[in-house]
User: Which sequence fits this backbone?
């Protein structure tokens, strides 16, 4: 499926790169097709976008107004070939401002994690909730920086720390919501995003 999707994408552009693939189930309500979803995102000088399926509009209740989704191309392949195709927010790279940038040592980024997790979930912690965070994966790539709706953005290297979190109670809504279907395509996950340049936390909804 990935090779078929790559062949289709290459006929349209050589600037997007396969960053994730997963099996998706059909959903008539959200007009999702069943098959193997291959997600392509922008690569700049061969450096890929750090993919998170909940980049924008993952949580409608907390999201910023009129958030602009990341550019992405999703190609769904089934047993008969192309089942679905979506190319969201095609963009153009107008310039590369910095070819090389000094990055913080990875251990320095890791040392910031306890503080940054507390900062991201401070509302729960201030209410006396005891939260347990389990990091499930770490990725390195580009993320978009710039105010929503501006139309012009820059891309910056970041570390994404994917994680699960709960309060230790099997009946808690946090634990139960980890695998819930929020209509994301192909799936939704939590990620803490830290700049690889200065370590600051970046909100992937607002872009700063």
Assistant:
């Amino acid at each position: 499926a990935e090779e078929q999707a790559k062949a289709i994408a290459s006929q349209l552009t050589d600037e997007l790169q396969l960053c994730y693939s997963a099996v998706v189930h059909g959903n008539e309500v959200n007009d999702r097709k069943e098959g193997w979803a291959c997600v392509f995102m922008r690569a700049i000088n061969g450096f890929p976008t750090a993919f998170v399926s909940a980049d924008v509009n993952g949580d409608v209740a907390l999201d910023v107004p009129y958030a602009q989704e990341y550019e992405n191309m999703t190609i769904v392949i089934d047993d008969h070939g192309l089942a679905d195709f979506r190319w969201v927010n095609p963009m153009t790279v107008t310039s590369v401002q910095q070819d090389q940038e000094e990055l913080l040592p990875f251990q320095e980024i890791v040392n910031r994690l306890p503080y940054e997790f507390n900062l991201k979930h401070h509302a729960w912690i201030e209410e006396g909730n005891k939260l347990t965070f389990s990091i499930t994966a770490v990725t390195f790539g580009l993320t978009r920086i710039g105010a929503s709706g501006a139309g012009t953005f820059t891309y910056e290297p970041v570390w994404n720390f994917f994680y699960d979190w709960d309060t230790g109670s099997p009946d808690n809504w946090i634990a139960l919501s980890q695998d819930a279907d929020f209509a994301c395509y192909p799936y939704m996950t939590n990620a803490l995003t830290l700049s690889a340049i200065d370590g600051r936390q970046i909100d992937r909804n607002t872009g700063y």
Remarks:
- The radius of gyration is 18 Å.
- Residues 2-10 form the longest helix (9 residues).
- The chain has five helices and eight strands.
- Strands lie at 16-24, 35-44, 47-48, 72-78, 81-88, 132-145, 154-166, 190-195.
